[in-house]
Design a protein that fits this description.
alpha+beta; eleven-stranded mixed sheet; three-stranded antiparallel sheet
Length: 330
């Protein structure tokens, strides 16, 4: 712990020195060459906007994962300025990809992933159907190699440009920022970006962490229910109250490792009108889950895999009213 703290302080010190040098340079430039100063600022602002612009949906196609039991796979092709364009026509086309996630919606089970190209590359796909087909087939090959799966090379273009939400697509492609690693790379000059972009990266990382880390954690509040008998006695007040509870919107994902083995079941539940974790009664067993919010919501799910009950964690975000539950698989 002492070593980590010392390394952090050294990293902060080096960053502060770089920032002071930058301010000194900009002060001198603004006084001695205002035009050059304006061009410098404008150039780096434009580069920063390109570097940190989010991915955008382009098209979505459907294919199949060829396993013992074939599964549907939805692939979102995205345009993302962070992915470089090929330097020439003879160079390989750069692309980037996100995690492969399995989703359960009612009785339907399917997988979703994302592949991103530079906007200029996808612009050519708009102009030439053959080029678009080649980009789709390149994405299929990339997914096979990246996630060690075999896919059908037949595909169907969908009317909707995106499967799922933009937030989910961004999360799969970008993951969670590690501000310590980012700071170390910037201080050692490994990132290959300007100081203005480095400052923007720190701000972006802070905002990303604030968004992705809900303020309230409640692993100790999880209750493990007793095993029910064949007949369950129901209190008469459940019939007499006359209050109807809703089934909240939810999403259930299977997170897999590099070997395509399911490791974690991830559940997110939208609970509009709920402002405190104290309102939520969460019960988890090895194969099912129940969430109760008195007089508002009730959700009961059979889990697709057997989980380790003792390591389940849950978080509630007051701002978004979303309850997130992570259940490691045995």
């Amino acid at each position: 712990m002492i070593f980590v703290a010392m390394a952090t302080k050294q990293c902060e010190k080096e960053m502060l020195q770089q920032v002071n040098q930058l301010w000194s340079l900009l002060d001198d430039m603004s006084e001695n060459s205002p035009e050059a100063y304006q061009k410098f600022i404008q150039h780096h602002l434009e580069e920063g906007m390109k570097q940190f612009s989010p991915p955008e949906a382009y098209i979505c196609f459907q294919t199949r994962i060829l396993e013992l039991n074939e599964k549907l796979l939805y692939v979102n092709l995205c345009t993302w300025s962070r992915v470089p364009a090929p330097k020439s026509e003879s160079d390989p086309v750069p692309l980037d990809g996100g995690r492969l996630e399995e989703t359960v919606e009612g009785t339907e089970i399917y997988s979703v992933t994302d592949v991103a190209y530079n906007p200029e590359v996808l612009k050519k796909g708009n102009e030439d159907p053959v080029e678009k087909d080649q980009l789709i087939r390149l994405a299929i090959k990339y997914i096979e190699e990246q996630h060690c799966v075999q896919l059908s090379h037949s595909y169907t273009l969908l009317k909707d440009r995106l499967k799922g939400s933009e937030k989910q697509m961004k999360r799969r492609l970008t993951g969670k920022a590690d501000p310590m690693q980012t700071a170390k790379q910037m201080s050692s000059g490994e990132s290959g970006v300007s100081l203005l972009q480095q400052l923007a990266m720190l701000k972006s990382a802070d905002e990303e962490n604030e968004e992705n880390n809900p303020p309230i954690c409640l692993p100790s509040d999880i209750k493990h229910p007793k095993k029910p008998g064949l007949i369950e006695e129901i209190s008469s007040t459940e019939f007499d109250s006359g209050i109807k509870v809703e089934t909240p919107k939810y999403e259930l994902l299977l997170i897999k490792d590099e070997n395509a083995k399911a490791k974690i079941i991830q559940l997110t539940v939208e609970l509009p009108g709920v402002f405190s974790v104290k309102e939520c009664d969460l019960s988890v067993s090895k194969d099912d889950l129940v969430i109760d919010v008195a007089e508002k919501y009730r959700l009961q799910l059979d889990l697709p895999e057997t989980i380790s009950e003792d390591t389940v964690t849950a978080k509630f975000n007051k701002k978004s009213h979303i309850l997130s539950v992570e259940m490691p698989i045995k």
